Amino acid sequence: MAELGTVVQKIRSKNAGPFWLTIDLFCGSDQAFERVVSGLDSQKVAALFHMDVKDLKRFEIKDLHVVKFSLPRPRVQGSIHDTDMHGAAWANLLSSVPLP
């Protein structure tokens, strides 16, 4: 098993407005894309972020070798309890997820 961060070229997370986050997995090749698509279960991702899988949106963009997740922010961007104003730290959580 390999960690997701060693299979993809880049993992990036960012704001998608004040209420949503987006996480992009840039796979870089057909082989890496297929491995991520088949090995990274949405239920696993939802559990990692302590959320219900029905609130997680998953997009697989084969032509670009990208898998994208969109999820509601746990706190509104810029609110007093928001600890990641730009949404950049969420990518780190996914990088160590094991892939078969």
Query: How many strands in all?
Result: 6
Q: Helix-strand pattern, N to C?
A: EHEEHHEEHE
- Tally of helical runs: 4
Biggest sheet, strands in spatial order? 2-3-5-4
Largest sheet: 4 strands, antiparallel
Approximate helicity band: 25-40%
Query: What is the alpha-carbon Rg in Å?
Result: 13 Å
Low-confidence stretches: none
Counting structural domains, the number is 1
Mean pLDDT: 94
3D structure, described in words:
- The protein has 100 residues and is an alpha+beta fold.
- It has one domain.
- It is 27% helix and 29% strand.
- The chain contains four helices and six strands.
- Strand 4 (57-61) and strand 5 (66-72) form a beta hairpin.
- The longest helix is centred in the middle third of the chain and has 10 residues, at 30-39.
- The N and C termini lie close together (5 Å).
